[in-house]
Amino acid sequence: MGVEIQLHVNGKQHHGTVEPRLLLVHYLRDVLGLTGTHIGCETSICGACTVLLDGKAVKSCTLLAVQASGSEITTIEGLASSQKGAGNGAAANGALHAVQEGFWEKHGLQCGYCTPGMILAAVDLLQRNKNPNEGQIRSALSGNLCRCTGYQHIIEAVQYAAKKMSARKPLKMSASAGRTP
Amino acid sequence: MTTRYIGKPLKRKEDPRLIQGISHYVDDLNLAGMHYAAFLRSPHAHANIRSVDLSKARHASGVVLALSGADIDGAIQPVPCAAQIPDMKSAARPVLARDRVRFVGEAVAVVVASDRYAARDALDLIEVDYEPLTPIVNPEKAIAKGATPLHAGHKDNVAFKWELEGGDLKAAFKSADKVIRQRLVNQRLIPVPIETRGVIADYQPGEGQLTVWSATQIPHLLRTQIASMLNFPETLVRVVAPEVGGGFGSKLNVYPEEALVAYLAIQLGKPVKWSESRRENFQATIHGRDQIDDVEVAVKRDGSILGLRCHVIADLGAYYQLLTPLIPTLTGLMMTGCYKIPAARMEITGVFTNKMATDAYRGAGRPEATYLIERVMDLVAAELKKDPVEVRRKNFPQPNDFPYATPTGLIYDSGDYEKALDMALKVADYKKLRQEQAKLRKEGRYMGIGVSTYVEICGMGPSSAMPAGGWESATVRVEPTGRVSVMTGSSPHGQGQETTFAQMGADVLGIDPSQFQVVHGDTSIVPYGIGTFGSRATAVGGTAVYKSLLKVKEKLAHIAAHLVGSDPERMVFADGKISAKESPKKSVAFGQAVSAAYVAKTLPADMEPGLEATTFFEPSNFTYPFGTHICVVEIDREIGDVKLVRYVAVDDCGNVLNPLLVEGQVQGGIVQSVGQALFEEAVYDEQGQLITGELMDYALPHASDLCWIETARTVTPTPVNPLGVKGVGEAGTIGATPALAGAVADALAPFGVHHVDMPFKREKIWQLMRKSSGRVQ
Q1: Which fold has domain A79-167?
Q2: Which residues contact B662 (CB under 8 A, 6 or more apart)?
Q3: What is the pLDDT of residue A170?
């Protein structure tokens, strides 16, 4: 009853046979060992499981792995390297994506559990809107819950990243880079 | 000591691993041969269990073990309760229900399988024959005459009665110009850390070693309790709290699953993992608040408060968790808030109902106290037609009144309440806000301004006043390479002590913060400690670290003085060197002095080798941070929506190690208060079903629900510890709800409304405006 799937995750091709009911988040965490994507609610509300699927932020707890077959996935571990369009897994040299850097600089996290999802939701926003205002950031992150920070430092983190990203040449963003439609 | 790092907004040492997703929370850990546990939970709030049939589940694919309460009878002790109140009745929570279930979500059986999906599937094959009983949901009905007791052997559902009285209450009410009465409901909340609970246990039969990884705030206390519950040697139990994704008090507890997963690992000889689902987290992890307060206040016409009397009904749920009965008593201790009220009395009736237990949720009894006294101040102001700010100011103790003794038996350490109030009024431009409000009211717009001046009890605390020790431990070990390990008994889970303790160490030893590694949450490495809760990690845990640092420093001063030929008293630690004051030539590198301690050839006579010190710091008192919060809301006349317009917070938590982290704590705390005020409410229906049982039904604050929070600080150090730090983890949650409630009541004043119970949902507000729209002033 297994179904064959193939995915590009953080720039690397993966083939496998999975149960049709296997959630994408469990595939990423339990099969591929990419545990940076967290599970917080199993109902799409909290956003801790947010990943980029073909460049767009999605909640991997309510997607089946089979639905994601044929897609490109970027998880938090691959975000920094996806920025340079190369590599797999966490950037070995410790290089950070501008949004990750913003979260560090502006104290955009406390317990860190919502952080990977929050960062990827912010990346999604900054791909669509290079210079979002406070209200636009609040709105874009309203699918992601944080219980620690009160969100204000997260907003400052996103503003920091927006500024930093617009100061250098446009990034070739994430997974969709290099794919033919 | 020069403070090069203390007080500076250093970026956190914790963050690189967290922002790259390469840190490890419990569910991220995997051991070879891991098995997975899943719990079958009661769908009934109250029922007898006639039978549990596990036969089909036991034969399901992948299942290796299935157990009901009967199967573990006597093998695991019930959940411990550390709180003791005279004459309180017993209500211990069994790890698996045996004959009766008393709340929805109580575990009835457990299944272990080779993967998590198989374990979950097998739950559907378990057949439980329940005999439903009438649930008791409403706490007032629970203690009404004729209500059936929840627990066998009890004559009613009163868990305990607790009283506290100080001052001459009779005289206060006799000489009052007015007595104002109000009923306040502090609704039940669900803590909701974004990481749910999780446990992994691994048993190595050869060594007899049991290792338990748990998302906990109290690894050492948990270790002791797991050993006791399983009757297992404590020396062979290691508890690890790896990365913990928020707690807010909900992980300051001992849960059935922690003992049971350990038991399963021992039985199977295989590692077992349990990851709590969000629904389980809502149903079976502690809840917070849930008090009905009937309050009476005696006042003079000039606004002086003479006396305060309150009867509290505390809905405890069905069983005690670790601190359940203790929490409402904190409300009693803090009931007079930051005011000089000569007489006060509180009576608490703790009540059993068919619900999950309440326990410590961020603030734990003190948000209820602040809410109570601050609502009272607003009601007094409304009754006397005075400005709420002036009523507060009139009743403040003055700075020279400290240490200030309350009628409830506490000694407030230090404070300057007026200073924080004045700063907040200035930042908010209070006068202008009132003018604006008057103008808007004429336009038919309903803006409200709420003020909360709060004090909280923190830095928990002196052991004499704590159920299981209030001290904290720290070991500082300078390693032979000159790197410094700091082992703290605190168990941070987001608070950032890996950074702040390194900042402190860097200043004490005159080296860079990068040289420090703060280790926590592993009972095999860290000396026995208490944990992180009650805004204690810096005030108590940090002081233990500081004292250990000083001990190590003193030894290094002796070594360095011996090496350069000077006096230990004259040695200065700076820039990685230890130098004599009198001559820059008399100097050794920090690492050189450290090396001397280990090589042990050039030590002063009679000095022991090594460079390590441990402190168990016992605080002499609690600490009492304070502040003023001002909130501005506007209510939509058409739909009852409460919109946050402005929020100003001035907090005084004493000295500050890292202002960036303090800011984060304050903002996060305030937003949890916004949650209680505007959205959050754990609702059980008449059948005892938790109908807010998921994040789909229980609304947390989103980024889009909030306004910018403007913060400022005053600094009034505490004399209770040498760092002068008070604690800030709960300030926002303790100080903010009354500001929000005050703002909403103020906005609705034209409708003749002076008090509304939280949460301020649209429908409730709309109904209030509708009912009294004929009376709009």
Answers
A1: DNA polymerase; domain 1 (1.10.150)
A2: B651, B653, B656, B713, B728
A3: 52
